[in-house]
């Protein structure tokens, strides 16, 4: 079976969740005997034509030159190339800039779309863009032969709103083999003496709420890992960069390094509020982090009772200053069991593989 994966900047991962997912899934499917092609942006740092058996197609991506419109042109370029190929399945990650072109995908191809989160809820978008994203969501549902929901919260939303039967398939994570204190020490961090947030600098990730909860707590050091080049990221640095206990660190993509930072943190914050199952959250669970999460259905469907939840700055401050050692000792173990059973690569990808086979049978 020939499968194309599009909707990311490409593999290996140098950016975020969908890229990491595409990398892991494509390599897994190749090992299972599938022929897999992943579409990469032309300026992706990996220049080879194959990656661990996965075929790589580089398509011109003008996003850096012309901004958001470039995403649409990149997706259009990928789809136009797909029309020349002989794929059985096109696995589309996201829909925001590609759904308007889905009518160009040949009818002989089975289109499987991973819907990601509720993109139209992101406040960084204007009301006009939010209306477009709602429209794009409808188009994605209309043209897809199978919808994939990466959380039970997203599945419930899709099935209720559109009367469909989406397939639940979340991201995966592995338990790291070892951790090294040398990684936090490189950043002059003492194990157990810093709090950690790993996220894109976007309002919906409640970055500012988490920062503000620390500004009145000078004894609590907060490390923020994520690119600050976005407009919101620049605002956060301008507002809070001078606080001695608030420290911005750019994206870290070395798995050993980022996992060690997670493992040796005192508290780990997950403020995401509009997406599905976030891979960074699963990795925090796998690393045995003490997790404080924003109180919403997406996070609760993953963490269940094995996290402390906050809805506002005051709640978060109280949790930061509280003594929760007994709770975290239990929750860390429970979350690791979840990773080993519910969110392991073998478990999640084997179910998805069978679904993909079923889609074309």
TrEMBL record:
The keyword Transferase applies. Keywords: Transferase. Residues 3-173 form the DUF1972 domain. The keyword Transferase applies. Residues 196-306 form the Glycosyl transferase family domain. It comes from the Bacteria. PANTHER family: GLYCOSYLTRANSFERASE WBBK-RELATED. This is DUF1972 domain-containing protein. It comes from Rurimicrobium arvi.
């Amino acid at each position: 079976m020939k499968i194309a994966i599009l909707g990311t900047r490409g593999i290996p991962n140098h950016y975020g969740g969908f890229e990491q997912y595409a990398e892991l899934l494509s390599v897994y499917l190749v090992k299972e005997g599938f022929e897999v092609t992943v579409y990469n942006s032309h300026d992706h740092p990996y220049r080879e034509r194959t990656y661990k058996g996965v075929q790589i197609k580089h398509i011109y991506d003008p996003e850096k030159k012309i901004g958001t419109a470039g995403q649409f042109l990149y997706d259009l370029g990928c789809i136009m190339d797909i029309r020349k190929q002989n794929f059985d399945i096109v696995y589309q990650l996201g829909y925001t800039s590609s759904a308007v072109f889905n009518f160009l995908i040949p009818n002989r191809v089975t289109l499987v779309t991973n819907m990601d989160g509720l993109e139209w809820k992101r406040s960084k978008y204007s009301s006009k863009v939010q209306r477009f994203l709602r429209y794009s969501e409808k188009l994605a549902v209309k043209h897809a032969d199978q919808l994939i929901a990466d959380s039970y919260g997203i599945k419930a939303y899709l099935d209720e709103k559109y009367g469909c039967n989406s397939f639940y398939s979340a991201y995966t994570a592995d338990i790291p083999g070892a951790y090294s204190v040398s990684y936090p020490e490189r950043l002059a961090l003492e194990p157990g003496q810093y709090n950690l947030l790993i996220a894109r600098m976007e309002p919906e990730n409640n970055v500012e709420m988490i920062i503000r909860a620390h500004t009145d707590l000078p004894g609590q050091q907060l490390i923020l890992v994520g690119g600050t080049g976005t407009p919101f990221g620049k605002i956060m640095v301008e507002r809070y960069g001078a606080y001695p206990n608030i420290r911005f660190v750019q994206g870290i993509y070395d798995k050993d390094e980022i996992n060690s930072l997670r493992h040796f943190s005192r508290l780990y914050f997950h403020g995401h509020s509009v997406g599905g199952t976030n891979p960074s959250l699963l990795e925090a669970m796998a690393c045995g982090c003490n997790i404080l999460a924003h109180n919403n259905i997406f996070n609760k469907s993953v963490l269940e009772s094995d996290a402390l939840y906050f809805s506002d700055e005051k709640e978060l401050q109280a949790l930061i200053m509280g003594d929760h050692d007994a709770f975290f000792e239990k929750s860390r173990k429970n979350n690791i069991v979840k990773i080993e059973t519910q969110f392991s690569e073998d478990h999640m990808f084997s179910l998805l593989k069978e679904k993909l086979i079923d889609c074309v049978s």
